[in-house]
Amino acid sequence: MTHLQAGLSPETLEKARLELNENPDTLHQDIQEVRDMVITRPDIGFLRTDDAFILRFLRARKFQHFEAFRLLAQYFEYRQQNLDMFKSFKATDPGIKQALKDGFPGGLANLDHYGRKILVLFAANWDQSRYTLVDILRAILLSLEAMIEDPELQVNGFVLIIDWSNFTFKQASKLTPSMLRLAIEGLQDSFPARFGGIHFVNQPWYIHALYTVIRPFLKEKTRKRIFLHGNNLNSLHQLIHPEILPSEFGGMLPPYDMGTWARTLLDHEYDDDSECNVDSYNAPAKDLDKDLSPKSMKRSQSVVDPGVLKRMDKNEEENMQPLLSLD
């Protein structure tokens, strides 16, 4: 075991070996092979190329070197093509902060039986008067950036449950094709996370209809990882045990506290609704308030051949119709 695997339990080490083809004897060579490909894309600014950073992309693509590099390139390409999204990419940004406090996203305390982090979204919580859908996407991406620092989650991955209860047609009308595509590109194509499943519950008919809109943008593997449960929570419980779910999902735990994850990120800033003061922010453990925008990453990380962007070529069980995996 190398120092890069120090955060993994023995069980997760074995899982990484069997499922992801991770080999401690060749780990540094694998990382270097991906790093060596950076020179083939002088049109992209690779703002981080350190070992630990590249490793998460290798794990996300089961140590297929070219696919890991493709994902790495698309990660930076997405951020630099959508600069407005990442100009103030921190938890205290007003839009991100409000989205976080409304539970976009939430995170359950217990992992599932595969060791995956369970993220939850309660769609009807979206307050259109205070923040946008883009702010919700930014809050989710920022949260994933924080969570993916955990090497256990790099290997085991995530599960997402979206509760569409009381999500109105007016709210759904804001889910435009361009907005959906922005989200899919940011999550499916440009982030090094493994999603074992995305579960829709209590979805109205118009959420079903959205499937026809997003289908052209979803990979086949992605479509197989989304399940529409409707009101049938028993089908959800077949995949995620009710012992670790809150009561909103028919689980045995108390109702979910929407501010749980936001308090983790915001710490003492959680109750401060004034304009955010970056200098006073004191995130726990991982310095989560630092600006994660491409510009600040460039200041803090080594840069290899920065340049302008050029897009890389991208190459219903009956009641649980698969629709998003990031694996």
From TrEMBL:
One of its GO terms (cellular component) is early endosome membrane. GO terms for biological process: lysosome organization. SMART domains: CRAL_TRIO_N (SM01100), SEC14 (SM00516). Pfam families: CRAL_TRIO, CRAL_TRIO_N. GO terms for molecular function: phosphatidylinositol-3,5-bisphosphate binding. Keywords: Cytoplasmic vesicle, Endosome, Golgi apparatus, Lipid-binding, Membrane. Residues 277-327 are annotated as: Disordered. SUPFAM superfamilies: CRAL/TRIO domain, CRAL/TRIO N-terminal domain. It is found in: Cytoplasmic vesicle, Clathrin-coated vesicle; Early endosome membrane; Golgi apparatus, trans-Golgi network membrane. It is a peripheral membrane protein. Forms a complex with clathrin heavy chain and gamma-adaptin. This is Clavesin-2. It comes from Struthio camelus australis.
